Amino acid sequence: MAFECLLVSRDPQVVCTLNPLLDSLAISTKVCLSPSKALNELKAGSTDLFLIDWEEDRSASELLHEVRESDSVGKKTVVAISSLDQAIPGTHLVLKKPVTAESGAKSLKFVYSRMLQDHRRHARYALMAPVIANVGRDRLLPINITNIGDGGMGLSSREQLAVGDVLSFRFLLPNARRAIYVEARILWTREYNVCGCEFLRIPPIDLDILHDWLKSKCQVKKPLVSL
Fold first, then answer.
1. Which of 122, 154, 172 is the last residue of a domain?
2. Residue 172: inside a domain, yes or no?
3. DSSP assignment of 59-82, as one string?
4. What total number of domains does the chain contain?
5. Does 15 score more than 90 pLDDT?
6. Can you tell me whether residue 108 is helix, strand or coil?
7. Average pLDDT taken over every residue of the chain
8. Residue 226, in any domain of the structure
9. What is the pLDDT of residue 39?
10. How would you class 143 by CB atoms within 10 Å of its CB: exposed for 0-12, middle for 13-18, buried for 19 or more?
11. Distance between CA atoms of 193 and 155, rounded to whole angstroms?
12. Residue 194 CA to its chain's centroid (Å)
């Protein structure tokens, strides 16, 4: 996969400077000339990086508000391009105007590292693994692991689980050298006994196995430049 960027700017200098830098990071970029058009693009597609040429007008402020409201899991990295020497609420970074190839490359490399970390944290990979879990101290329950990521996993079970329940179990990742042990807490439940949980504890050796497996699954298009 390639990261996707939405660049909102009417400034040819900004667009012409940033476009090749984004290409060098293997980031697929779409340019919008106005905040109103950008809002439609945000609703229509998946955006990992949002770059806005900041102007202190109502439309830009409203667009940033819409970005924050639509990004409940914090997936998007938001960067403002501004001549103002101050932080802009709702953004992760301010790229100072005038944008040069040097300043743009330095900022975008930092942004790319953040996007990669966020992607690994939020990504979930399908995994159908039946296990027997300890629920609390005295209850054994067959469950199925449906997906897994850096911070948690999805589960399904024949019996209902409740938010706050703590489970512990061992399971084997495909092609892993050994089974790993996890303790996890239920964060949410859905119909048909489907639920999501966060990891509470994984032994260090088992955590290394999990991270190595997740890295092998994280197929992000490789940048053309060294980071």
1. 122
2. yes
3. HHHHHHHHHHHH-TT---EEEEEE
4. 2
5. yes
6. helix
7. 86
8. no
9. 76
10. buried
11. 8
12. 22
Say what the alpha-carbon torsion angle 105, 74, 183, 126 is, to the nearest 10 degrees: -80
Backbone angles phi, psi at 157, to 5 degrees: -150, 165
Sequence-ordered list of residues with C-beta below 8 angstroms from that of 52, at least 6 positions apart, any chain: 8, 9, 35, 38, 60, 63, 64, 78, 79, 80, 81
Q: Which two tokens stand for residue 195?
A: 């639920």
Cα separation, 199 vs 153, in Å, equals 8
Q: Is the pLDDT confidence value at 61 over 90?
A: no
Average pLDDT over residues 182-204: 93
Per-residue pLDDT, 36? 74
* Least confident among 15-29, 68-82, 90-104, 190-204: 68-82
Residue ranges making up the domain that contains 78:
4-122
- Region 69-87: what's the mean pLDDT? 78
Whether 13 contacts 99, CB under 8 Å = yes
Report in angstroms the alpha-carbon separations of 110 from 80, 159, 162: 14, 45, 40
CATH number at residue 75: 3.40.50.2300
pLDDT band at 116 (very low <50, low <70, confident <90, very high): confident
Is 223 among the domain residues? Answer: no
Indicate whether 224 belongs to any domain. Answer: no
- What CA–CA distance (Å, rounded) separates 12 from 108? 18
Q: Which amino acid is at 102?
A: E
